């Protein structure tokens, strides 16, 4: 079963928000007036030159806003027309014109006079200047300081982790217009139509029932359209409200990269205590994230980083703090993994340093620290199915011939002076559920027509992740009809209200369960009608393959006949479905609770090759074993695993966000910011699902798969570290992320030119 | 030349006339306005391939489909061309084999990049002489952010050869359209495509503001990203003198207007490093449009062509209305994006002397292995005499100075000596003394300087093994 829209994708007939522009007469296009500095006060902004530009219709201003001129999602800290410039190229206002070119010419003609102020552009500057969004978040278990002091071995260090541009192929895009009843309607490429609706309503000062937001489908999102789509939809809506004409906002790539938030860059400082076998005894970690100019989702991102600092490892005593730095850069936001990848990178880095400090194989040290059944996390949640970590580890080592290949790599490295290989295995445990508990609900509206055809509406959005494919499969199973008779409708706030973002890997769990609920209600209503027709007991009625029969093998009637009969019998053929995740709770004050419904597990083995002359590297082989529960759609799940892995690999080895000392994004286009391409695809790429992994209490026994595989790519980082180590004489390998050829080159230089570090003993502290 | 207000082309098998055509509009924008919204703008600089369409062009052996970035083609560049978009492939509800293979393999997730992949794979599917599965490398100009490429690779490898009655295969039996002289203009801009070198040079002399354009892979990026207006463009695509290929016993003369892929198809006897160089040069989509002359004349310090050709002692033929001259490439570049070309001169061809050096290696260090701009590129060439001493050595670099250059001090340190680590060390010392590279987002000055030296070590390790 392939993607629900595959046929439309390959023929070019799948429509995205911008493709709908041709349907609107008199459409206006928007272009922003951009801030010339990264921090400063706007002294004057003279838009008269823009209004004089042929084709320009108007220039938006704060006085046009009937409601609140702010689009911030949690905290209202994102003014649409700012007086204080908070990042380079921040939009100060928007020009609307008959064409994109005219809007751009108009916007570029606007004279902005500003008074520059000192800017904070790095985490280091933010720490030095005490520039944070509020007090630090913290999670604790035991007395980490005492446990550190009592540990036989200790090390301390830090690691800097680069951010990541989403680079969804479809940039931010929205069209808004006045609808036929005087309300405002919008097509928006948004992961969270209800939030987009709420922000438009807030800006226009309207109740939400006056605003309809529909997401046709997205050309990728990855978290980048969870909150940040609201801004551009609000500009389109404000423009439409003011001009009474339809307005399109579509960011070209260069603007999208300059204006929108990214995966948070992090800095981690840590101290670890351990024994001579590499068993972790204590951990103190301070995480600093670069939140950018506004708060956006930085708090929940930091929370998830702190939650996932353990990855698969038991931390007996831990003190972890999370500090969100306020800087004069784009407002960093959700990105697949949502802080989890940064947290996990830190613990994997710590364990690798411990292993190399003790001259132990890193995979042994990792395994020694795994959670055992019955143990709980540092936030007090019992690690359900903890035994799967060990189980997956062993299965994957066997399937990937880990031991034999490592021996072969050792032989290769022995014989090769200038090219070395490395291999590593890393595990993943990822908590499933929004950590903001109220988001863990889903809604659906299922409509069955008299001819047996079905429309399914639900609160989730399709961004390529295959949600609609899975939902269609769930509905088909529940109703016992062919997938072809089910039509998935674009997400609309007019069909399912108050929906949650399609995020946190939870969309199938939430919306799929809601759809199953609605379908179940309809089946129960149809059952007595069918029993009457089939002259059997209601509980004997079976729905399968578009037929309804008495028992599994009895004579059947067509589903369409039954629905017509039910209609005539005045049985309602539509139902709303609802689901809320049971049993989850978390107390931010105590840092304790059960924030996750369950954990998704997996592991990856990666093998790489490094050129000792240049630091260039290549990935040779990847083996993955992932726990997806009972897969609803294997093709979709494999696609999520492979695609997530390559995206993680890009974040860790290739994609580099660099800002210059003026706060200008230096890698702000496709020619300077490189995504994984064909050269990053390993020739051997084995992906398997863990067998016998039914997840009770989740729709169709499945498990979330959107985010967890991204973190499997940590195996590549660790494999590269192993290859770097092969050039040296032992000892700890320190390297920041991403592992570009240049970073690898300098790590090689350090490894080659230094004598082995002494193994830390007693109370000695190894500085790494 | 007749100046037309319209652009005529063959689109999806039908003649189409675009009236009141703006010479500055891209083909992509025009297609989308015509309602053909399958092609997408993912980056507007030829990096992502979401805008890919196929053009029918002559290969010398017959017509072929060439996938190109429609975001980097200005509408008048399509005048007289035959172009296919993703919308034309399926027959009613029956998918084209390429579409079906991608759909079945799970080759699309969000689907936004998919039409571009379809069109690149479509062109590969009909590649002349293809006997085995489609080559995934043909899709190297298309980026996908969702799938991780594995299913797309499988989809390509699963394809067999087209049926003889396939309508797109039958199309290739007929010749490709030939490009003719063409001109169009609007209130803001004009575009002309002369059909002779003399006409080009005359028009350039008459209009000092005019810019030459060929594939557009550099200039159209300028207009797309920075909004740069080019009020008068002279297209070189229909000039036969720029499309020459002349191989003799003493040299190969390559027309400056040949695209990189055309050169790849013709240069059978090239030094082995040529294939490595070509594979690392941009992407297949760009190589279908970018010309060798354009890459040299734009004089970027990080162009890939210069180091390769410098190491081969190439010369350039420059033509003006008053005559022509031949100059060594090593004196062609005079400063950052500056050359010895006079305002009314045109780079006509590149001459590569024969025999080629015994040992040639091309190295390109970049963040990404394929389709990236180099941090440092180097081409090293060497010939030994019978006694095993270095008769000639060429060490040419890009990315280490404001122009591509040879480091003659390092070459002199090697020539006349045996090729040993000690001699290589002397060359490395010379390179370190001579080069003062800059820091930017592609790499630090220290990394570039280290690479320039380290690549000599790499060359030594590879060529000494070859000698032994």
Note down, in words, how this protein is organized:
The complex is a heterodimer of chains A (768) and B (468). By secondary structure, chain A is an alpha+beta fold. In chain A, strand 17 and strand 18 (454-458) form a beta hairpin. In chain A, helix 6 (193-204) crosses helix 7 (229-243), helix 10 packs across helix 11 (362-368) and helix 15 crosses helix 16 (559-568). In chain B, strands 2-1-5-3-4 form a five-stranded mixed beta sheet. The termini of chain B are far apart. In chain B, helix 2 packs across helix 4, helix 13 runs antiparallel to helix 14 (421-434) and helix 14 runs antiparallel to helix 15 (445-467). Chain B is globular and about 70 Å long. Chain B is α+β, with helices and mostly antiparallel strands. Classes of the chains: A alpha+beta (768), B alpha+beta (468). Chains A and B meet through helix 1, helix 3, helix 17 and helix 19 of A and helix 2, helix 3, helix 4 and helix 15 of B.
Brief write-up:
The complex is a heterodimer of chains A (768) and B (468). Chain A is α+β, with helices and mostly antiparallel strands.
| Total domain modules of chain B | 3
Residue-averaged pLDDT of chain B: 95
Form type of chain B: globular
Strand order of the largest sheet of chain B: 2-1-5-3-4
Tally of alpha and pi helices of chain B: 15
Helix/strand-derived category of chain B reads alpha+beta
**How would the global form of chain A be characterised?**
globular
Specify the structural class of chain A: alpha+beta
What is the alpha-carbon Rg of chain B in Å?
A: 23 Å
- The helical percent of chain B reads 25-40%
